[in-house]
Write a structure and sequence with these properties.
mainly alpha; 12 helices; 62% helix; globular
Length: 207
């Protein structure tokens, strides 16, 4: 399996679905089928949904799923650090890692832990990128599980990314939380009852 193709395809699929992204659906499908056949089935639900759904509806669903619900936040360090002071240091370290690899993210308007950017880094530097994705494996798995619970076609895309990493994916949220051996950070600045790291203790109803 060509993981660079999987990471590039997933980066596009998890970005805001503007005309350029939606117009690349056929290209994404062909590239994944040729370079990573096992991953093709995971991308298919989203690509098929894009094909049969008006662009305005796809965009509305994207915003509702990723921007309006913390349960599906695509910012990886948010799942591990929440809105704490520590997260600032984490984001600065990510920027340093990108810069040292030669990847420029200035002008993107996104934080460096935004999953599509992390995936672009993984495509650019597969070894370091895979290590970074493994570092945030609990975040990825929690996003995957939340999307699957919602019945979102985006769930398969995140699952395809998880499948590139060593070890089995956890079967449920409890197992995913157990992957984060260190647990939630001690600092609690900014945490509230809806913080995703508290989901096992305070279940949130499906949207």
């Amino acid at each position: 399996m060509n993981v660079r193709v999987v990471y590039q395809a997933a980066s596009l699929c998890l970005s805001y679905p503007d005309d350029g992204v939606l117009g690349s659906a056929a290209l994404i499908g062909r590239a994944v089928s040729e370079a990573a056949p096992r991953a093709a089935a995971s991308f298919a639900p989203l690509l098929e949904w894009w094909e049969k759904t008006p662009a305005s509806e796809v965009q509305t669903v994207y915003v509702d799923t990723f921007d309006m619900s913390r349960r599906h936040a695509l910012y990886l360090s948010y799942w591990t650090d929440g809105d704490t002071r520590r997260r600032g240091a984490v984001l600065a370290d990510l920027k340093r890692r990108y810069r040292e690899s030669g990847l420029t993210i200035d002008g993107t308007g996104e934080l460096p832990d935004f999953l599509p950017l992390v995936l672009e880094f993984a495509r650019h530097a597969p070894g370091e990128g895979a290590a970074l994705l493994q570092e945030y494996r609990p975040s990825l798995e929690l996003i995957r599980l939340a999307l699957a619970e919602r019945g979102s076609p985006y769930a398969g895309v995140v699952a395809a990314v998880c499948d590139t990493l060593p070890g089995r994916s956890p079967a449920d949220r409890q197992q995913a939380m157990a992957m984060a051996a260190a647990g939630p950070p001690r600092e609690s600045v900014g945490l509230d009852a809806h913080d995703p790291r508290l989901l096992p203790l305070e279940p949130v109803g499906r949207r």
